[in-house]
Design brief:
Mean pLDDT: 97
Strand content: 15-25%
Bound molecules: NADP nicotinamide-adenine-dinucleotide phosphate
Strand order of the largest sheet: 14-15-16-13-12-17-18
Number of helices: 13
Low-confidence stretches: none
Length: about 500
């Protein structure tokens, strides 16, 4: 069995206690690279979630009444604890998720950065004084915590998606009940354990673990509770829509970070080497399992063949293997469902006329490994143009001119990220304006940072995480009309 960090507790975390499921049932957490069980965690459900909500509610009074500086001190200590244990956290992340250790290290720093950033933003949660409509009154506006909030996170960034929610929520004075993904609960539990060390009071941050069968019960318990005032969800668009429908019942606030179908456009005036660097990282990072991955690559006709040849050369050099092995730059896919999806999309595209230049098969390493793949001649008739691939498959289409590229890029119900490469300043502003996405990367394939707002438009979601805007969604405005202030006569 793999060596796990000493601070990891393989129980749920409720009200400051490490607890099993009431049923005693447990869930295997697997290393996706080997299929071996790393550890088991409790299969918790509605009852344990309701208990966690009660503990969070009990903690809310004390936590929300602390000064912002006081809360910031705890969050800064939490960030420091993550950084001090970064190597252990990164290894744990690779073990349960599969990404190469180098990428896990980057994710751990990204995750810790949300605690540092929102510790500071919590101190700047300013209100307003508005010029009054009455001579005897003042209008004050304050920003207040919501109360108990729920967080539901996916498996592809098991550390950063937790802190991108918990940090702003707690900085604003809320208390959270978090449900991590079935495949990757360990990073969330490790974060909770380090929070405990850093002085996060009991009940302020709770983790309820469970499997795919329990997820709907946990979600329902959160949404149906009158105490839970917001659900922050990152995951698929289908589940996000369902949660939003369910939240309509008692108007629980939602923010949704959902799926994407990013276009990556290379114009003929681009720096081709830079575009290749960007395409490589944006397509093959995390074996293609990112919501902002280059799902559709559009290359202008005159440079198409040269670009494809060079991308194939780079993809050929990708070392596939266990993420803990040295020099490995692509790990396995998360599970067999993920693998089957990639196989289905590649088969559909090739049957409908796409040309394979590289890969296109399961990798010889077996399990859920898939070959780095490059295909051209991709058309809107192919499913790969419309669905998130979530695999290491570069799907390339050539285009004639700028208008052609913009129309194809926007031909999707999703609107999370879009990328393009150009050195023409007029084109840069035109295309950045025209792309219907929440995020635009110009001459870069790497756009994630805690200081910028992350989120989508259309069916990619509602709300923003990170940045100065990311804390607002975890608060409610209160208008106070202070009257009776007429000057003494
Ligand atoms: P998912 O199947 O929607 O699951 C996401 C989370 O929701 C998991 O914790 C899952 O639990 C839980 N869940 C599933 N059904 C639920 C229900 N009925 N009620 C409450 N919770 C429920 O998505 P995924 O496959 O884990 O993640 C991949 C998706 O996330 C992709 O579409 C990707 O684009 C998106 N994503 C978006 C962003 C962004 O910032 N926009 C970032 C990362 C990922 P179980 O795991 O236990 O089923």
């Amino acid at each position: 069995m793999a060596q796990l960090p000493e601070f990891l507790k393989s129980e749920g975390y409720v009200g400051g206690q490490w607890v099993a499921a009431n049923s005693g049932n447990r869930l295997d957490v697997l290393d996706p690279a080997t299929g071996e069980t790393l550890v088991t965690v409790p299969r918790m459900g509605a009852v344990e979630t309701t208990e966690a909500i009660a503990k969070a509610q009990a903690a809310f009074e004390g936590w929300s009444r602390r000064t912002a500086v006081d809360r910031a001190t705890v969050l800064q200590a939490w960030a420091a604890a993550m950084r001090a244990n970064a190597e252990d956290l990164a290894r744990l992340l690779t073990l349960e998720q599969g990404k190469p250790l180098s990428e896990s290290r980057v994710e751990i720093e990204y995750a810790a950065s949300f605690f540092s950033w929102f510790a500071e933003e919590g101190r700047r949660l300013y209100g307003d004084i508005i010029p009054s409509h009455r001579t005897d009154a003042r209008i004050l506006v304050t920003r207040n915590a919501l109360g108990v909030v729920g967080g539901i996170t996916p498996w592809n960034f098991p550390s950063a998606m937790v802190t991108r929610k918990a940090a702003p929520a707690l900085a604003a004075g809320n208390c959270m009940v978090l449900k991590p993904a079935e495949a990757t609960p360990l990073s969330a539990l490790a974060i909770a354990a380090l929070g405990e060390q850093a002085g996060v009071p009991a009940g302020v941050f709770n983790v309820v673990t469970g499997g795919r069968e329990e997820a709907p019960q946990i979600g329902k318990a959160l949404i149906d509770s009158p105490l839970v005032r917001k659900i922050g969800f990152t995951g698929s668009t289908a589940v996000g829509k369902q949660l939003m429908r369910d939240c309509a019942g008692d108007l629980t606030k939602v923010s949704l970070e959902l799926g994407g179908n990013a276009a990556f456009i290379v114009f003929d005036d681009a720096d081709i080497e830079a575009a290749l660097d960007g395409a490589q990282i944006c397509k093959f990072r995390n074996a293609g399992q990112t919501c902002i991955a280059a799902n559709r690559i559009f290359v202008q006709e005159s440079i198409h063949d040269k670009f494809v040849e060079a991308l194939c050369a780079r993809a050929q050099d990708i070392e596939v293997g266990h993420g803990l092995e040295q020099n490995v730059s692509q790990g396995p896919l998360i599970d067999t469902r993920g693998l089957e999806k990639v196989e289905r999309l590649v088969a559909d595209a090739t049957e409908k006329g796409a040309t394979l230049h590289l890969g296109g098969q399961c990798h010889a390493a077996g399990g859920t490994y898939y070959q780095p793949t490059v295909m051209t001649g991709v058309t809107p008739a192919m499913d790969i143009s419309h669905e998130e691939v979530f695999g290491p498959v570069a799907a390339i289409t050539s285009f004639r001119d700028e208008q052609d590229a913009i129309e194809m890029a926007n031909d999707t119900p999703y609107g999370l990220a879009g990328y393009f490469y150009s050195r023409d300043v007029g084109r840069i502003f035109r295309v950045a304006d025209a792309l219907k996405t929440g995020i635009v990367g110009v001459n870069t394939g790497l756009i994630s940072t805690e200081v910028a707002p992350f989120g989508g438009v259309k069916e990619s979601g509602i709300g923003r995480e990170g940045s100065k805007y990311g804390i607002e969604d975890w608060t409610e405005l209160k208008y106070i009309c202070l009257a009776g202030l007429e000057a003494a006569s």
